[in-house]
Amino acid sequence: MIKNEYHHGNLKEEFLKIAFNFIAKEDIDKLTLKVLSDATGTSRSAIYKHFKSKDALIEKIIEDGFEQFDNSTSPILKDKDKPLIDRFYFTGKEYIKFAKENPNLYRLLFGKKYAYIREKIISIQDEDCSGFGALKLAIQEGQESGILKNDDSYKQAIIIWSSLHGLSSLIIDGFMDVAELYEKLYDDMFKTLLAGIIANKVKLLSSLPFGDKLLKVK
Amino acid sequence: MIKNEYHHGNLKEEFLKIAFNFIAKEDIDKLTLKVLSDATGTSRSAIYKHFKSKDALIEKIIEDGFEQFDNSTSPILKDKDKPLIDRFYFTGKEYIKFAKENPNLYRLLFGKKYAYIREKIISIQDEDCSGFGALKLAIQEGQESGILKNDDSYKQAIIIWSSLHGLSSLIIDGFMDVAELYEKLYDDMFKTLLAGIIANKVKLLSSLPFGDKLLKVK
DNA sequence: TCTTAAATGTAAACACTGTTTACTTTATAT
DNA sequence: ATATAAAGTAAACAGTGTTTACATTTAAGA
User: Fold this and answer.
1) Could you say which of A214, B83, B119, B130 would form a disulfide bridge with A205 (CB–CB 3.0 to 4.6 Å)?
2) CA angle A135-B164-B18, nearest 5°?
3) What is the pLDDT of residue B2?
4) Beta bridge partners of A215
5) In CATH, what number is assigned to the domain containing residue B68?
6) Measured between CB atoms, which of B107, B118, B178 is closest to A112?
7) Are residues B75 and B179 in the same domain?
8) Are A16 and A60 in contact (CB under 8 A)?
9) Which residues of B touch A188 (CB under 8 A)?
10) Residues A129, A208: one domain?
């Protein structure tokens, strides 16, 4: 595909790339069509040949963003070679790391404004057992092996997700000086959370990160 | 103070009142100066005689909003006639209720955009022991009476706040169908959380809401 | 009470925003 | 080679927050 001065070639992909790079540094509502047109050397209305609206471009960013988020977290949770508790621990840590490194993207993925896209994606994840679906599956795995309490896995998954989301939000939305001591906070939160969903007959030893030897059956 | 057609009387207060009523129903970024001027029968630029900018009006809303939030939650936490665990339980419940009933205001108070105002307010609350300061104080009270683990009260407060914020966000930002089963979720989360910060020598009985009789010293 | 100054309003313009329209240029397929 | 589709532009539109110059009313002092 040869490009000349007039036609750009693959403007659509470039718009997305520029938008991604932009929210790596600035908030999404600072992103204007002028930013995109200036960066590509096109006119402000060029985008409408590739996206129905500015929102449509953002929706695509969100879809790609969820894929990126899932690629960062789910593999850790699914790695059956490692002990389950370790997998929970490191997945949660990666969750927070992702939020910390991509705050603007994270807010986009888990904020109110585009909840309808998240809704759609989560229902897909429920089917192919990625993302939130993977978390529920991992909890079920823990219940079946007797490590976790037999309870509603959906409810347990939400409590875990809720805690991670809460801590991540505190970190990236500038609550006090949380960002500095967040690692200790996470370890504490994890212990607390784990104590709540772990089976009664299983005792948790103190060291972190955990290993399979650190779980003791009473 | 007599009003005629030209001068309004107390336009500043009315702007705030209208803005408050507006975010009770719609998101803050739907609030335009035209909405305010139409509702008061004034011109779009009238607001600049009372506020430096649109943002300055929003900042005032946030300050008032925090006062409102504090009035809803802190009194429950400070009521020393009731057992401490009950106070934690019902304060948390009120926290979530506030978020549920005022989602747009809650997002304004705890979102990223106006974090600098929250920062300012929290430092005030630290001094007069309202809001976040009240939470830390209540935790210290629990530690001194031997009910709670002797740990960094600041860290414990953040973990609690983080959990409440996470669950509230899930509810109001449209995460799945959390809104329906949030009461059960809250009870579960509270138990889990409490198990994490409660002193080892204290055993927690199962019923909710708790009472002082439900705490048993081993 | 008359005059003056301050407070509080308006209208018009400004530079932005996202979006639509009509038009132009280039690429592609028959 | 030519018709058609794809992909760009420029100009206009309504909307945004904000500033400027001006008008009206209120309040205060002599």
Assistant:
1) A214
2) 120
3) 35
4) A204
5) 1.10.357.10
6) B107
7) yes
8) yes
9) 155, 159, 196
10) yes
Q: Does A51 touch chain B (CB under 8 A)?
A: no
Is A161:B164 a contact under the CB 8 Å cutoff?
Answer: no
Does residue B22 form part of some domain? yes
Residue A212 has what pLDDT?
A: 47
Q: What tokens were used for A99? A: 């939020």
B155·A189 Cβ contact <8 A: no
Widest pairwise Cα distance in chain A = 73
**Coil, helix or strand at residue B139:** helix
As for how many domains chain B has, the answer is 2
pLDDT at B48: 98
B202 φ, ψ to 5°? -100, 130
Q: What is the tens place of the pLDDT at every residue in A78-104?
A: 999 998 999 999 999 999 999 999 999
Per-residue pLDDT tens digits for B119-154: 999 999 999 999 999 999 999 999 999 999 999 998
Within-domain flag for B19:
yes
pLDDT at B28 over 80: yes
Residues 36-55 of A with CB under 7 A from strand C: 44-45, 48, 53-55
Let me know: does A188 contact B179? Beta carbons within 8 Å: no
pLDDT of B212 reads: 47
The two beta strands, A202-204 and A215-217, are antiparallel
Span A44-57, average pLDDT: 98
Q: Can you tell me the mean pLDDT for B87-106?
A: 97
pTM score, two decimals? Answer: 0.93
Question: Is there a contact between A155 and B185 (Cβ–Cβ < 8 Å)?
Answer: yes
Average pLDDT over residues B172-201: 84
Domain shared by B95 and B189, yes or no? yes
| A18 and A88, same domain (yes or no) | no
Position of tokens 């007599």?
B2
Task: Determine the angle formed by the axes of helices B84-101 and B182-197, rounding to 10 degrees.
Answer: 140
Inside any domain, residue B109: yes
B200 and B99 within one domain: yes
Place of tokens 């408050």: B20
Interface touch B165/A170, C-beta < 8 Å: yes
Whether A146 contacts chain B with CB within 8 A: no
Average pLDDT, chain A: 89
Q: To 10 degrees, what angle do helices B54-78 and B11-23 make?
A: 70
Mapped onto helix, strand or coil, the DSSP state of residue B204 is strand
Long-range contacts of A73-77, Cβ-Cβ distance < 8 Å, separation of 24 or more: A73/A98, A73/A131, A74/A130, A74/A131, A74/A134, A77/A134, A77/A135, A77/A138
